[in-house]
Amino acid sequence: MAKPRVLILRSPGANCNEETAHAFELAGAEVEQLHIQSLLNAPQRMDAFQVFCLPGGFSYGDDIAAGRILGNQVRLRLADACHRFRDAGKLVLGVCNGFQVLMKTGLLDLDLAGGPAATLTRNDRGRFEARWVQLSVAPGGCVFLAGIKSMELPVAHAEGKFVFRDRAARAKLQAEGRLVLRYTAASGGDAAYPENPNGAEADVAGLCDSTGRVLGLMPHPERFVDPTQHPRWTRGGVESVDGMRVFENAVRYFL
Amino acid sequence: MKLWEINVAPSPSQPDRDAERLVDAAREAGIANGLRAATARGFLIQSGALGEEPIDAIVRGVLTDGVIEQATVSQIAGAGAAGVGLAAPPSRLDGEPAVLLNVLPKPGVMDPVALSTTAAIGDLGFEPPLVRTFRKVWLAGADPATAKLIGERLLANDAIEQVVFGPLALDHLDAGGEYAFELKRVTLAGLDDGGLMRLSREGQLYLKLAEMQTLQRFFVELGREPTDIELETLAQTWSEHCSHKTLAGRIAYRDERGERRFENMLKETIFAATNTLRERWAADPEREDWCVSVFADNAGIVRFDAEDNLAFKVETHNHPSAIEPYGGANTGLGGVIRDILGVGLGAKPVANTDVFCFAPPETPDNAIPPGVLHPRRVMRGVVEGVRDYGNRMGIPTVNGAVYFDERYLGNPLVYCGDVGILPHAMSFKQTLPGDLIVAVGGRTGRDGIHGATFSSAELTSESEMSSGGAVQIGNAIEEKRVLDVLLRARDEGLYTAVTDCGAGGFSSAVGEMGEEIGAEVWLDRAPLKYDGLSYTEVWISEAQERMVLSVSPGKWERLHELCASEGVEATVIGRFEPTGRLVLKWGDRAVGDLPMTFLHDGRPPVVREATYKPPAAVPLAPPEKDDYTGDLLRILASPNVASKQAIIRQYDHEVQGGSVVKPLVGVASDGPGDAAVLRPKLSSRRGVVISCGMNPLYGGLDTYRMAASAIDEAIRNAVAVGANPARIGLLDNFCWGDCERAETLGSLVRAALACHDLSLAFEAPFISGKDSLNNEYSYEESNGEKRTISIPPSLLISAMGQVDDVARCVTMDFKQAGSAVYIVGETKDELGGSHYAKVNGLAGGQAPTVDGPYAKRVFAAMHAAIAEGAVAACHDLSEGGLAVALAEMAFAGGFGAAVDAAGMPGPDTPGADALAAAGRLFSESNTRFLCEVAGDKSAAFESALAGVPFARLGGVTDDPRVVVTLGDAKLIESDIATLKQSWQEPLAW
Q: Of B95, B379, B460, B551, which one has the greatest count of Cβ atoms within 10 A?
């Protein structure tokens, strides 16, 4: 079977597109990077791809709120193409800013009657922070996380605190097994700062849609596809290159 | 026309973080206790078309996050308006009476969020309106005077913002006025010397008398008066900032060794060393001249691998950061990134560096002179400015340092660096006659008028008022757009040359690119942020995020199309005409016409006097004591040494995925790494190493030793992680006081002489450099006495090294108990300017020396040991000497250490002078490392180091304590948790 084709969306302020492309290529995919402007002009170009990836960065400077402006563009102007994409059994991945964008696109099935079930907002500490975190994984039906129990990945964001609209929304997402990634303490228990780096409710670090084929996450899997990217690699013992597994899962899904 | 005010506030169930921060800051600053506050983000939207329903859609769809925020809306002007701004305090204040403050950007100040909001409203399908953003704060429990103080000290910066109390009473937003063309001439003829200098000062030209006289003669001979734009162009080009006329000028230097005259001081010292090295390498068939382009372009370029080169540049942005720390730092970083975009045919930025110098954060409020911002505020603003720009650009900030000294009170220093990668074939540019002059990126506004000449002036307590226009706010996303499209255009071969619009704006960029050819510029075609700019303002505006390209006419169409496809504006504003003249036009009217030769070579040479007199030697006698644990803890807690984690973690140091040795290392990722290592090409194992060295404390003793030490430190930091010392390029950044004073200039020349000598000795070429002079602050004391604070001599040396395989790199944290601990290099009695002296208030002593040939051998041997894999951990010895290095390695690794300071090379070499315990522990002698070597690697390690001084001092232990003895005497004993806490607490804000 041919290599799956990955579309990485460039936008003003996207800045993790190159390393994300590198990660997908390492996993065996064929990657094309397209600017949002070209996609808005010709949304049908999405049809030629199997994976749609929104990379990290600061789309439109995160002006007004992180991911807001690009999220609106995708929701309002690429809606048909995106839904056709998902309905065709293809995969969508949003990392960091890409997750913030995805939250606003409708692709994560968050729209309840009273409004969105959840949002991402400013970190409790009120500022951007870069550090590595321990994650526990409950993949359920999430294609990207199949077979993964835990990961160690870096986060780097200012607006990554996951907040539920209310208890009902929390219960619903929990019951549906959509809260697939959580920050965890090294001991495996509930995470306090800095293990939970942003104050996310229920320690949520990532979320998938109801099909399991759309994943949004704050941590950066593309920043851990080589052992020397791990912060303690000079101390030895880096056995698993955790981020790589996410991209391998995506590619394997189509093989 | 309708004007709407919209407030977006956190929902009552959500915390109001901005309000919490403000309340904390007011308490910390001693302004108010028990304050309550609430905040909102404000938007003003002006449109002829938008009625209530569309505004509601905009509020819900663009401005508010319904899960966590709520909005209030009022139409405050236009038909059917309620007429007043929003004022009711949010419910979180429980109906307490509150003072309302609105913080608005002053007219013309960059407001990136407003620009984005306008476009986002367009995405909803509405006609894009005019938008302004602002901040709103309600203070309960504050009287009006307190509220005013909070507004001034904590909320608004008068240089760019204004505070309006109570509801906004606006009837429209100002979109700029019409500009009525009027050609202005300036009278030079007949002015006496006093008149010329008055014109220089009041016109913000900041030219010297001899320069003003030269201009006067030039125009008298032409038989006409200059136009204002001609005078401005000459002042920009001849400014210290653009021409570096002091250091690249004639200097008569005198020191204890005699006299020396320089025709061009930089050329005869720093550049000369590089040229000597390049000639030596080129003549030697065994070696390679790996310098590609040095001291010629916007940055230095060196060879990286078979396909690519590396470029590196470090700039300062001191004066703007003193006045508006956030904007100054923000645009400082933005500017140096544009240097990298504008080097050769454009390089891709892969790493940022930042080094800051501030006054101590604990400086009492009553010690702050008029017109000076408190160092805490400066520090916060600068850190956030660099953070927000660097992170948004997607460039990892991987290396830096922070130094504190009282003398940076009026004049903080902000050094920003950027490293880029570019293909060999893209490393040179050549503007061709007939090429179009194309402006790319941001629009031109009144931002930063007179920035170039302003940096030549001394700051005074008036600066904040008179130079507000020199302050710029950056828009990182505009620059990111330019970066993305520029590299694509480069790879398509769409232009012949590129340079950034930095200080002096178009005036410098076009003047520089057209120097050998000539240029005609059509100023009325430059796209503007708002109407009303005069031709001169367009020409010298320092609006950010602009690049200038020279484009052959046949490529213009494709370039324009490519830029448009990524939302970047590109405009033809002139043509490089082979006339040898710079012709400036507004419509069809010529407003300026100058020969390029006069512009670039007409400046009269000035001979400056420079003297250096070494201070009288004063012995430093450390008091004898039995236990030095307290000294170690105090040095670890001194702000220069203390952990900078709170800053580092705000910077994305891993974006682009290439970061191999991060700024924080060790078992808990919180130890101080010596240098950063990154892979600029993810497909390759080859790495770049970035480090720095600086020590303003040595400057008072001897600036030669200070400079030599900074070079040694920068190189040894790079070597400590695994860089090959045979391929390290250096950058110099001189920040000094007023060099009109012979002794100040003398101390600089002496440092430059050290740069020359050590560059040759290490065979480490300088590849780029920059200076910033006049870093002084003058004010009047309350008794009317004039006081000037001059910064200490501050030479930053940045080093860029390379490693063949990043997997060979090492970090400084101890890895396992049972390893041996070795010291490499000689320790001498060099406590002068040390941190031991600083925390104990001791003056005098010897600043550390560098023995070049010896140091070169040590570095080569150290590198061989690391490259062989014999070293488990390596840390350089610098501030705090052996004791600090040992403590850091221990707590970073989570192990203890037991070390005997007897038997150190130096004092215990036969025939050497005795060295007291304090000297052994804390002397800051250069060219030293502390290494951890696993048991089975000792033989390999020792044989790699054969021929250079080293000694085994002890070992790494499971017992989590650091114990240092001298024979039978115990000098230091502390558990690593205590050591780490002392080091982490001071700057954990």
A: B551
Would an 8 Å CB–CB cutoff place B659 in contact with chain A? yes
Alpha-carbon distance of B627 to B966, in angstroms, equals 11
Task: Return all residues near B720 (Cβ < 8 A) that are at least 6 apart.
Answer: B674, B675, B810, B812, B862, B874, B875, B876, B929
Residues of A in contact with B392 (CB under 8 A): 13, 15, 58, 61-62
Which has the closest alpha carbon to B480: A18, A13, A70? A13
pLDDT at B531: 80
Do strands A115-116 and A51-54 pair parallel, antiparallel, or not at all (unpaired)?
unpaired
Residue-wise pLDDT for A45-85, tens only, equals: 999 999 999 999 999 999 999 999 999 999 999 999 999 99
Q: How confident is the model at residue B34 (pLDDT cuts 50, 70, 90)?
A: confident
Q: H or E segment at B933?
A: strand B929-933
**Residue at B952: amino acid letter:** R
How far is the alpha carbon of A188 from chain B, nearest alpha carbon, in Å?
A: 17
Q: Is the Cβ pair B65, A132 closer than 8 Å?
A: no
CA–CA separation, B925 and B907 (whole Å): 12
Strand partners, B549: B438, B498
- The DSSP 8-state label assigned to residue B968 in this structure reads T
Return the pLDDT at B450.
Answer: 57
Question: Catalytic residue among B172, B244, B317, B756, which?
Answer: B317
Reduced to 3 states (helix: H, G, I; strand: E, B; else coil), residue B295 is coil
Rounded to a whole number of angstroms, the distance from the CA of B122 to the nearest CA of chain A is 10
pLDDT per residue rounded down to tens, chain A (255 residues): 689 999 999 999 999 999 999 999 999 999 999 999 999 999 999 999 999 999 999 999 999 999 999 999 999 999 999 999 999 999 999 999 999 999 999 999 998 888 899 999 999 999 999 999 999 999 999 999 999 999 999 999 999 999 999 999 999 999 999 999 999 998 777 889 999 999 999 999 999 999 999 999 999 999 999 999 999 999 998 889 999 999 999 999 998
CA–CA dist B694, B684 (Å, integer): 32
Task: Report the predicted TM-score, pTM, of the whole model to 2 decimal places.
Answer: 0.94
CA–CA separation, B274 and B729 (whole Å): 10
> Could you tell me the two tokens for B906?
């130096």
Q: Is-catalytic flag, B317?
A: yes
Alpha helices in B603-673 (DSSP H): 629-637, 645-648
Cis peptide before A194 (omega within 30 of 0): yes
**pLDDT tens track for B213-226:** 999 999 999 999 99
Q: Look up A222 and say whether it is catalytic.
A: yes
3-state secondary structure labels for all residues of B240-291: HHHHCCCCCCEEEEEECCEEEEECCHHHHHHHHHHHHHHHHHHHCCCCCCCE
Distant-in-sequence contacts of A232-235, Cβ < 8 A, 24+ apart? A232/B666, A232/B667, A232/B669, A234/B661, A234/B665, A234/B809, A234/B810, A234/B811, A234/B813, A234/B815, A235/B667, A235/B811, A235/B813, A235/B815
Q: Cβ contact (<8 Å) for B117 and A61?
A: no
Q: Report the b/e string of B381-403 with b at 16+ CB within 10 A.
A: bbbbbbbbbbbbbbbbbbbbbbb
CA angle centred on B136, ends B130 and B137, rounded to 5°? 175
Question: How many whole angstroms separate alpha carbon B438 and alpha carbon B570?
Answer: 7
Comparison of pLDDT for B445 and B3, the residue scoring more: B3
Nearest by CB to residue A22, choosing from B666, B667, B682, is B682
Contact list in B for residue A124 (CB cut-off 8 A) is 15, 17
Answer yes or no: do B655 and A38 touch at CB < 8 A: no
Q: How far apart are CA A151 and CA A23, in angstroms?
A: 16
At B930-988, the pLDDT tens digits run 999 999 999 999 999 999 999 999 999 999 999 999 989 999 999 999 999 999 999 98
Q: How confident is the model at residue B451 (pLDDT cuts 50, 70, 90)?
A: low
